[in-house]
Write a structure and sequence with these properties.
Elements lengths: L1 H9 L32 H7 L1 H11 L8 H63 L5 H13 L1 H7 L8 H10 L10 E5 L11 H15 L3 E7 L10 E5 L4 E5 L2 E12 L2 E8 L17 H19 L5 E5 H5 L1 H9 L8 E6 L7 E8 L8 E8 L2 E2 L11 H4 L14 E2 H8 L2 E5 L5 H6 L6 H6 L4 E4 L26 H14 L15 E6 L7 H14 L2 E6 L5 H12 L5 E4 L4 H10 L2 E4 L9 H7 L3 E4 L5 H4 L10 H8 L6 H10 L1 H12 L5 H17 L2
Length: about 700
């Protein structure tokens, strides 16, 4: 009977000589169709074999004494499996193409929005150029700026091609463009020393770009003024142009020429100031860290204000950053406030107070034959300077070297530039995602605490963020299925796809990962890889029976070379080490992982914990940062929403505790992740709200 069924399955005529004895027992051979039919082979496989199968059938049935050749059966099964693999590969390629089309569609829509912002920013920069070239007066320039700001959508339709138009033609069209509705939103000008991607991989740089884009997405106008470093990455600057006229600024008792460059970065108008007389200030390899940093950045700060006044700009807010541009505060109120900027206010952002900490400041003795013959070091705070140097940018040292102004709280013989920024600003935003206001002022201010206490009421805390337009599981084009807090089914699909792509077991993926949790360890850009710690994590993964993925986020880095070495050394079917940078895979890792192992919650340049929460993965630190909890005792009202969430959930959770909850209390774990996903920790969320609240408060002063 079995022989008859077997022959029928292969299309072989029944033969009395082809039979199995009752004593012979064989494991059943299951040949699955694409539709999971176990009764026969895939029809496509039979077509492929063609005449070859017929020949084999004849050889089996033509000889009365022939015996079944099981190698032929195994061969057919192997070929069928190969055909199915090819079919699955084709399906994956199709899905990849569809994802790419979807991604390009999203980028095109986003690009339309960026084009609108870029045209507005480009028009404003052209207006600046007209003022500098005396084509229009500062007063008319202010009216034209309000026109552009108030009619962003209409402006794009009329002025979407500006690059090839001369000043006269463009000015005529602007004058014909009617001005009607009241201006909405704030006009913010950042005076800063960093901006991404011009200056990459620095916390202030990513912050300036991130919050500026978030503000522009919601109707505000943002401009950035920064030095033109020789090391700038200008690849993503649209319409970069050098103005034909130089702008003058005051420094060291004289007026000095500056070359002005303008362009648009991510829809944000950017002005770059290049000193001519002091060209060495910004032609160096590093952004800062030089003994003449005060001279460099006080020159730039004064030049920025001279440029703003010359162009007739009247922004609502001048936004300053750290000690490098904090000198703008005293300069503004002592010199520039009555030069058409009566309605402008000052906001200072402090990205921590580490510049207050004492360090060795080097002083070089210049030799005629050598650039530096020798150097000596003195312990000073990075943001303190000799009082008489304030005169370089036009300030009065005697007037400012007072305890309630710029005099340093510890070394009375020096002035503190960051302190001056705090005193002369209308509002101070302290950037800290984890530490509350109380901790930043009383524990981490490095001697600035007396000043911060006096100005307590104008201090506020704001968290860092990330780019939600790129990192959002509900619209991420790299994912096989999108998901959100209301519908988490797509996360299960993403986990299965991730496991398939990396060759990991899919066991229990459809049951909330209750048996085999998937943990990813993603190393941020610039991170140093601790090989000993990583091996300890791998040993832990083996003991806990969890799947682990290690991945870097930087192309061609030294870290990737270290990962390559570990990959050759470690062989485990539950551990994958991804060496080659893959953007699509990185998105899938966030979406498919249950836990993302992070280096720290405290690094402002590390967006990995924020992205993990967005994608429904728990951020857990390598070593549980239990000290975080003490910072929140009795001060929750001063902390950010992000810090409150981390403190109440993942801040004190070890990897063991997280895995235990996934396995033993999956419903609680799921609810925990859903609640985290509903929070918006991007630049458009809590960070944006804190900034708009600060801008609104100082405009009402």
């Amino acid at each position: 009977m079995m022989a008859t069924l077997f022959n029928a399955a292969l299309g072989i005529p029944s033969s009395p000589c082809f039979s199995f004895s009752k004593q012979s027992t064989l494991s059943p051979l299951r040949c699955l169709r694409n539709n999971q039919d176990v009764n026969g082979f895939h029809e496509h496989r039979l077509e492929i074999e063609g005449d070859k199968n017929v020949e084999k059938s004849k050889s089996i049935t033509g000889d009365d004494h022939a015996k079944p050749d099981f190698s032929d059966i195994l061969y057919l099964n192997k070929e069928r499996l190969k055909a199915i693999d090819e079919l699955n590969k084709t399906k994956r390629e199709k899905q990849s193409l569809l994802s790419m089309v979807k991604k390009l569609t999203v980028e095109k829509m986003a690009g339309a929005c960026r084009d609108n912002q870029s045209v507005c920013s480009d028009l404003l920069l052209r207006i600046d150029s007209m003022v500098l070239n005396n084509v229009i007066s500062p007063g008319e320039a202010s009216e034209l700026r309000r026109l552009v700001i108030s009619h962003k959508v209409g402006v794009y339709d009329v002025f979407n091609v500006t690059a090839n138009k001369g000043d006269s033609e463009l000015l005529g069209e602007l004058r014909q463009f009617s001005y009607g509705s009241k201006k909405s939103g704030f006009h913010i000008v950042h005076i800063c020393t960093e901006m991404a991607p011009l200056v990459p991989n620095r916390s202030i740089a990513s912050y300036v770009t991130g919050i500026s884009r978030a503000l522009q997405r919601k109707g505000h106008l943002v401009e950035v003024i920064m030095p033109k470093y020789a090391s700038l990455n200008l690849d993503e600057v649209q319409g970069l142009r050098k103005l034909t006229i130089e702008a003058y600024s005051y420094f060291n008792g004289q007026l000095h020429e500056n070359r002005i460059w303008t362009g648009v970065v991510h829809g944000i108008g950017v002005t770059l100031i290049e000193p001519l007389r002091y060209s060495s200030f910004f032609s160096r390899e590093m952004i800062n860290g030089y003994p003449d940093d005060f001279e460099r950045f006080s020159y730039f700060s004064r030049a920025s204000l001279d440029y703003i006044v010359k162009c007739g700009k009247q922004p609502d807010v001048l936004h300053l950053h750290n000690w490098e541009t904090a000198i703008v505060g005293p300069l503004f109120w002592d010199i520039f406030a009555n030069q058409g900027l009566e309605n402008t206010r000052i906001l200072l952002t402090c990205h921590g107070f580490n510049s207050q900490a004492s360090s060795v400041k080097l002083f070089y003795i210049v030799n005629a034959k050598k650039l530096f013959s020798f150097a000596y070091g003195v312990m000073f705070s990075l943001c303190t300077e000799q009082p008489d140097k304030l005169a370089l940018c036009g300030l009065d040292p005697e007037r400012l070297n007072l305890p309630d102004r710029l005099q340093d709280n510890i070394n009375m013989e020096r002035v503190n530039i960051l302190k001056g920024g705090v005193v002369y600003s209308n509002r101070v935003l302290i950037m800290s995602s984890v530490h509350p206001k109380h901790t930043m002022v009383h524990n981490l201010s490095h001697g600035l605490e007396p000043t911060l206490n006096i100005h307590w009421d104008k201090l506020a805390i704001a968290p860092y963020g990330f780019d939600k337009s790129t990192w959002d599981p509900s619209s991420d084009s790299f994912l096989p299925e999108n998901f959100n807090a209301e519908n988490m089914n797509g996360k299960v699909v993403c986990k299965v796809r991730l496991q398939q792509q990396l060759g990991l077991s899919e066991r229990a993926s459809n049951i909330l990962a209750s048996v085999l949790p998937l943990v990813a360890c993603i190393f941020p850009k610039g991170a140093e890889l601790d090989v000993h710690k990583m091996k300890g994590i791998i040993l832990h993964a083996r003991q806990q029976n969890i799947q682990f993925i290690f991945m870097g986020t930087n192309e061609g880095s030294v870290m990737n070379q270290t990962l390559e070495g570990l990959k050759k050394e470690i062989k485990d079917n539950k551990i994958r080490i991804v060496v080659k940078y893959d953007e699509a895979l990185l998105h899938l890792v966030f979406a498919g992982s249950d836990i993302i192992l992070c280096q720290s919650f405290l690094d402002p340049t590390d967006e990995i914990p924020l992205k993990a929460l967005r994608y429904g993965a728990a951020p857990i630190t390598h070593l549980c940062e239990a000290t975080i909890n003490r910072n929140f005792i009795h001060h929750d009202q001063e902390a950010t929403k992000y810090s409150q969430l981390i403190n109440s959930t993942f801040g004190n959770m070890s990897l063991n505790l997280a895995v235990d909850e996934i396995r033993n209390n999956p419903s609680k774990w799921r609810q925990r992740m859903i609640e985290a996903m509903t929070q918006d920790f991007s630049w458009d969320g809590e960070c944006y709200d804190a900034h708009v609240e600060a801008y609104s408060a100082i405009k009402n002063l």
